[in-house]
Specification:
Elements: H1 3-23, H2 26-29, H3 32-39, H4 47-55, E1 57-58, E2 72-74, E3 80-81, H5 90-94, H6 105-117, H7 126-142
Antiparallel strand pairs: 1-2, 2-3
Helix pairs in contact: 3-4, 3-6
């Protein structure tokens, strides 16, 4: 193998290591969509959170511009995928190298739990608060969302 071949082999190996790192949090990733719903709407709404509970896809915010918003972690499997839920190529995976902290499911869960435990801002009145609680309950039921996420193809929505 020549020098260039060795470099390509190293790139592929590094991409495999990144995939393995993300996949190692598979059980934790399954907790993200439900927690994202619980955290959303407390002090505004998040497109990243909505994508998680509607589609079961987590979008790291560090994606380079050339890939747009087409790189996700599939919360059902822990795999790095594109918007169509198919695996992405190794060069796309390598683009995530500088933001591995945003691919740590345990850290993401901790952040979501912190947001949930903060409660709601004082400016939200009781009627609004009750409405948001009902909204979460109804949406979780509609999406068949439970604390451990399982994808139901019928409920995949693109956001």
């Amino acid at each position: 193998m020549n020098g260039l071949g060795k470099i390509y082999a190293i790139e592929r190996k590094l991409a495999d290591e990144i995939r393995s790192y993300v996949l190692s949090g598979r059980n934790s990733w399954r907790r993200v969509p439900f927690l994202a719903l619980q955290a959303d709407g407390r002090c505004g709404f998040s497109g990243t959170y909505q994508r998680a509970y509607y589609s079961g896809l987590w979008s790291p915010s560090c994606i380079p511009n050339e890939y747009g918003y087409g790189i996700f972690v599939d919360c059902a499997t822990g795999e790095i995928v594109g918007s169509n839920c198919n695996p992405v190529g190794y060069r796309v995976v390598l683009s995530l190298l500088n933001c591995l902290d945003q691919l740590d499911a345990v850290k993401i869960i901790q952040k979501l739990q912190e947001e949930v435990s903060k409660g709601v801002p004082s400016w939200i009145n009781k009627k609004e608060l009750d409405g948001r609680i009902r909204w979460r309950e109804e949406l979780a039921k509609e999406l068949r969302l439970s604390p451990l996420y399982v994808r139901s193809k019928k409920y995949i929505k693109k956001r």
